[in-house]
Amino acid sequence: MKIGRLNHVGIATPDIEATKAMYATLYGADRATETKDFPHLGVRVCFVSLENSELELLEPLGEASPVHKFLERNPKGGQHHVCFEVDDIITARDTMRARGATVLGTGEPYIGAHGVPVIFVHPKNSDGVLVELMQKPDHD
Ligand SMILES: CC[C@@H](C(=O)O)C(=O)SCCNC(=O)CCNC(=O)[C@H](O)C(C)(C)COP(=O)(O)OP(=O)(O)OC[C@H]1O[C@@H](n2cnc3c(N)ncnc32)[C@H](O)[C@@H]1OP(=O)(O)O
Ligand SMILES: [Co+2]
């Protein structure tokens, strides 16, 4: 198993609209989706389009959100995770485990914001970086 493209960089923020506006005015990154709630994932999400990838802006939905605790430690927000594409999510999950990594939660892939299955690998396995693996969407 080998990771493919960088799909997105997840960025936690206490105010998604302010962060969206900042990327537009400061960096000229003015192509962004409408903000959408994903209650079952505990996040509000907006994607800022780049030439070769996306920024995934994340605001917590409630105190049980995985992003809530992150913002308690980093109140102004910051880089939260990176997401790489893989060919097959089950093969990726089993390979990560066989290589000694901790797949978060039950390890059962779930449908993320792009409508394809994802898993997360604990940051302790990747020098402090939380890694999301996403089954490759049909964009090629
Ligand atoms: C929009 C949907 C989807 C998509 O389609 O793209 C998403 O991206 S959703 C994004 C939000 N979802 C997730 O993050 C799910 C996976 N995350 C988790 O399971 C947890 O957040 C966590 C990573 C296991 C952290 O658990 P938590 O209880 O919040 O924190 P702890 O205090 O126990 O932290 C343990 C340890 O990990 C460090 N940590 C926590 N978060 C991060 C992070 N984002 N990046 C790097 N390191 C992180 C934390 O500092 C602790 O370190 P130590 O103190 O050294 O133990
Ligand atoms: Co993500």
UniProtKB/TrEMBL annotation:
CDD domains: MMCE (cd07249). PROSITE patterns: VOC (PS51819). Residues 5-136 form the VOC domain. Pfam families: Glyoxalase_4. The keyword DNA damage does not apply. Its EC number is 5.1.99.1. This is Methylmalonyl-CoA epimerase. The lineage of its organism: Bacteria, Pseudomonadati, Pseudomonadota, Alphaproteobacteria, Maricaulales. The gene is mce.
